[in-house]
Specification:
Two copies of one chain form a homodimer.
Chain A lengths: L15 H7 L1 E5 L4 E3 L7 E15 L5 E8 L3 E2 L10 E14 H10 L1 H27 L2 H13 L11 E4 L4 H8 L3 H13 L3 E3 L4 E4 L2 H8 L4
Antiparallel strand pairs in A: 1-6, 2-6, 3-4, 3-5, 3-6, 7-9, 8-9
Helix pairs in contact in A: 1-2, 2-3, 4-7, 5-6
The first copy, chain A, binds a DNA duplex (30 and 30 nucleotides) through helix 6.
DNA sequence: CCATCACCTTGACCTGAATCAAGTCTGGTA
DNA sequence: TACCAGACTTGATTCAGGTCAAGGTGATGG
């Protein structure tokens, strides 16, 4: 997710008035949820600011975070009649909401938009494929390493130097639920990485990768 | 996957000649692979007969099976420039191959096809969401139960009676790699289910669900 | 009709990550 | 400056599932 063309770009002669007509802006406060898993799916969303987490729940409360979304990301493709996931703001977010009906009017007027949506879905599918491998086959160390590397690709300016400064805007609980681990395990492994001089933990949210190369290797199970 | 409309149905005045022009049939023998992960993605595929497994690999050979596909299923959406997965026949399969260029000609002529592809991708996304929860948060028992229930939905005639006969066309190794377990664990849990009178194991590939209701409960972690 | 081989099951044991249980750190409040 | 609450870390212990190691089973061929 992140840093790629917004859906507007697929509308060559992008008539922004029409686009605005079919959508409405909304603001979601930290921790507030705006998509309920299983509810009828009536809207698409585009994240315009802040961050959002997507998740599914088991009846007893176990949670799997299936993705984080930020500015420019598209939400709601993983839904037929009802949403296959819940979504909730992570530190406050602003969204653009597109009712399905309106989106359909848009795709009729701008056929390339439909193609754009498919591309978006494909990209998401490819990511999920990798995430299934992470959840099904990687060790805890590999998962955390993968997570760190993944976060790097969300940076605006991929630092040219050898060390990379990372901001982890989500609490450990979310990282754990994203990686299929417990918070304790995530914490322990970050501590271990620190002891191994792979990272510096400047604060809870701010981490510096001292050896991104090596962390990538660990992420792929090739350490 | 399975038992839903083929892409042809989105072509209202379906000109089969045109469709045939843009595609080629192929046969893949048992165990032969026809998509290599990471290779440039030039084709879409539709499974017309037999079965296929999709998977990703880690460098050391660990494998995650990300899905099984059968008649009518569409392959290749989870790809941008290169395939995000490998694919291999499971007991022999026949496929229809659509080069991207040809597919593009088709979507130009039949715009609703593009929509159909997006729907297909959405459906797949929703399935993957559930599978991530399985891999990240479910116990081995829950995974195997989920697998059995999932297989039911692939049956032609969902048996009206209370017990359901299932055919598992894939070896234990594939089930294990699909569920993120080992073959031993899969085997043990099937034996446990048998001992608990939840299933009968008539042969390696043929299983009878004696209490589908209860198995569903286990699958959702509510036993 | 037996041998073989591939696949599956079962058992014994081990281990990575979960669970349970203290601490510690941080930032907000008074 | 001290207090508090919530989030994080760390340690001790447990346990689900993995690993290692025999057996079983059933389809194929000699």
């Amino acid at each position: 997710m992140g840093r790629r063309l917004s859906i507007c770009n697929s509308i060559d002669d992008c008539d922004l008035a029409i686009l605005a007509n079919e959508s409405s802006r909304m603001t979601v406060a930290d921790g507030r949820s705006f998509i309920e898993e299983g509810e009828p799916a009536n809207d698409f969303f585009v994240v315009t600011g802040g961050r959002v987490k997507l998740f599914t729940l088991l009846p007893d409360g176990r949670r799997q975070i299936t993705g984080f979304a930020e500015g420019g990301d598209f939400l709601g493709l993983a839904a037929s009649t009802s949403y296959a996931f819940g979504a909730e703001a992570l530190g406050g977010a602003t969204l653009c909401r597109f009712p399905h009906a309106g989106m359909q009017r848009l795709t009729e007027r701008f056929p390339s938009l439909e193609h754009r949506l498919r591309e978006e879905a494909s990209r998401e599918l490819a990511l999920m494929q990798a995430r299934m491998t992470l959840l099904g086959r990687k060790t805890a160390r590999e998962r955390v390493a993968t997570f760190l590397i993944e976060r790097c690709s969300h940076l605006d300016r991929p630092d040219p130097s050898h060390t990379i400064e990372l901001d982890l805007p989500m609490p450990r609980t979310d990282i754990a639920d994203y990686l299929g681990l417990t918070i304790e395990t995530v914490s322990r492994i970050l501590s271990a990485f620190k002891k191994e001089k792979l990272i510096n933990i400047r604060s809870i949210t701010h981490i510096k990768l001292l050896d991104p190369e090596r962390i990538s290797m660990i992420a792929e199970g090739m350490e």
